[in-house]
Design brief:
heterodimer, A: 267 residues, alpha/beta, six-stranded mixed β-sheet, four-stranded antiparallel β-sheet, 10 helices, 34% helix, B: 342 residues, mainly alpha, ABC transporter involved in vitamin B12 uptake, BtuC, 13 helices, globular
């Protein structure tokens, strides 16, 4: 499913947060949006999810303007996993995942149809949550909770999945688990994935395309191999780095001379 | 493939088993309510037999000796049921919508507004005493509307609502206090209203509450699933296709109408709307398809029970239901909380 963004500008009562963004997303791409805090990453993602309405510009999902989508229609095409979610106290893994079927069900009657059960089952299998499905979410670790939320999005069966910093608060193994899961989703279900990431090495390793935002504008938009170089990192994040190649993907090593930093401060 | 389908169905039968347990609790609560209903009908200053009760109800008050049942106890009990159901339903919805365990009808200004409306009539113009209910009703609705408008900032966020609610409620309460201080000799008239009492409720009170309670119950039960989704957070709810802002306005409107109708009839029974939903959440979980009916039934039963105790314990003196409610309810709630922790 295609997404076209044309001259999108967003502001929250005042300064422009996104300025004249043009972006075209091909079906089944994995796109990482990177950039410093406040560069507009989340805002861009939230605009695509129709959580923010732009001051100008248009977004087309599947050749139809986002403005003309009802919430329900959109929920059948785009699943969005926000960074902050709230978890009802005593809800189980299976119950939470089954809420992903809500867009497919009628508003009032709650009978689970065969397709619902199948979709939930697939989501559980992909996220390897079989053993945890009767557990209460509040008793799970952060990584397991995040997998459950992703399973909810999978059960929603949309062609597009938006993730806002999916690895935040997770330990290093859980981060890799989540990134691999996202990659697997893209490979097996051909889901188009757009996510915001802080870890540049995750972005280079797990996406086909990286979009670097700076001050609300697209600074660079290319494949990891073409985008990652010292000058761009310096320009976007204002840090020095060294780039090494490992298995033909670039690795970014930030370099900061701590002693020098302290010396500068003393002066 | 076939195996995996059977396996999936097994998985869902586990879910069904848990739902069945919840349904069982609801049926149990219904039976308890029925017992309390007849207990309350037969006990009081005059003890009446089951036979008396049935003939009175069957004849709709026309049979001999049926005056007490038909004109005094029955309307009072039904009012208690409706008021209890409305208040806890309102509280349960607000706790879900605000995603805050301390939310209750009081937080959207219902109590403060009703208090002011009633006080104005009782104290400042007692000759218009028959306007107490409409004045209290109007007071609550105006107050909760004011809170909603003040909290509005491209949509009303729960935290804004709660903070605006606290501010407006304390402002309105200070007006109530001012009126009380201006007419100190008339304060005693407001005591029953401020505590919450079901004394001298008649069929006309039933008629006031019934439409709100019934519509409220039907609407919220239909929306129960949406309330579940709403409790996952605004962003997730939007992503699952719910128009969060519209649903929130609808639910807050329903709960303020429910609470306003209850409070204007029975006075400020603060405890019901705050604690009864929590008691049921501890017992039955936070799936609103079960939580809402359980809260409705439980608080209807609890309020009727407390009113009956208040009626008979030091008869002929009556203790307002609001007091008994807190005396019985608070320790019971703490017990449930403690048990849950262990």
């Amino acid at each position: 499913m295609k997404i076209e963004i044309e001259t999108l500008s967003v502001s929250y009562d005042g300064p422009i947060v996104l300025n004249n963004i043009n972006l075209s997303v091909k079906p089944s791409e994995i796109i990482s949006i990177v950039g410093p805090n406040g560069s507009g990453k989340s805002t861009l993602l939230r605009s695509i999810a129709k959580l923010i309405s732009p001051i100008s510009g248009n977004i087309y999902v599947d050749n139809k303007n986002l403005k003309n989508y009802s919430r329900k229609e959109l929920s059948l095409k785009i699943a969005f996993l926000p960074q902050y979610k709230s978890i009802p106290e005593d809800i189980t893994v299976l119950e939470l995942i089954s809420y992903g079927r809500y867009p497919h069900q009628s508003n009032f009657i709650t009978k689970s149809k065969y397709e619902d059960i199948e979709a939930i089952d697939r989501a559980i299998a992909l996220t390897k949550l079989e053993k945890l499905q009767s557990r209460k979410i509040s008793t799970l670790s952060g990584g397991e909770q995040q997998r459950t939320w992703i399973a909810l999005c999978i059960a929603q069966e949309t062609d597009i999945l938006l993730l806002d910093e999916p690895t935040t608060f997770l330990d290093i193994k859980c981060q890799l688990d989540v990134m691999e899961l996202i990659q697997q989703l893209n490979y097996e279900l051909k889901t188009t994935i757009i996510m915001t990431l802080h870890d540049l090495n995750h972005a280079t390793h797990y996406s086909n395309r990286i979009i670097a935002l700076k001050n609300g504008e697209i600074f660079a938009d290319a494949t990891p191999e073409n985008l990652i170089n010292k000058n761009i990192i310096k320009a976007v994040f204002d840090i020095e780095c060294k780039i090494i190649s490992y298995n033909s993907t670039p690795f970014i090593l930030p370099i900061r001379n701590i002693k020098e930093g302290i010396k500068n401060e003393k002066q | 493939m076939n195996n995996s389908i059977i396996h999936s169905y097994n998985k869902f039968s586990e879910l069904k088993k848990r739902n069945f347990y919840k349904l069982f609790i609801i049926v149990l609560l219904l039976i308890i309510t029925l017992i309390i209903f007849f207990f309350s009908l037969s006990n009081g200053s005059v003890e009446l037999s089951m036979n008396n009760i049935f003939t009175s109800i069957a004849s709709m008050g026309k049979a001999e000796n049926s005056h007490i049942i038909w004109n005094i106890r029955l309307p009072r009990i039904i009012t208690a049921i409706l008021v209890g159901a409305s208040l806890s339903l309102s509280g349960a919805i607000l706790q879900a919508v605000m995603r805050n365990p301390l939310a209750s009808p009081g937080i959207i200004g219902v109590n403060a507004g009703a208090g002011l409306g009633a006080t104005i009539i009782i104290i400042a113009m007692p000759i218009y005493f028959y306007y107490i209910i409409p004045a209290a009703f109007l007071g609550s609705l105006i107050t909760s509307l004011a809170i909603y408008l003040l909290a509005w900032q491209r949509g009303a966020r729960p935290t804004h609502l709660i903070l605006a609610g606290i501010a407006v409620a304390s402002f309105v309460s200070s007006l109530t206090s001012s009126i009380m201080i201006a007419f100190p000799e008339r304060i005693h008239g407001t005591v029953d209203f401020m505590i919450g009492s079901l004394n001298a409720k008649t069929w006309s009170h039933v008629k006031i509450c019934l439409p709100y309670t019934l519509t409220g119950i039907i609407l919220t039960l239909l929306l129960a699933k949406r309330i579940n989704i709403l409790s996952l957070g605004d962003d997730v709810a939007y992503s699952l296709g719910i128009n969060v802002e519209r649903t929130r306005i609808l639910l807050i409107t329903i709960s303020s109408l429910l609470a306003a109708s209850a409070v204007s009839v029975a006075g400020l029974l603060g405890f019901v709307g705050l604690v009864c939903p929590h008691m049921m959440r501890l017992l039955i979980g936070s799936d609103h398809r079960f939580l809402l009916p359980a809260s409705i039934i439980f608080s209807a039963a609890l309020l009727t029970f407390c009113d009956t105790i208040g009626r008979i314990i030091v008869s002929p003196v009556e203790i307002p239901a609001g007091i008994i409610m807190s005396i019985i309810g608070a320790p019971f709630f703490l017990y449930l909380l403690k048990r849950k922790k262990n």
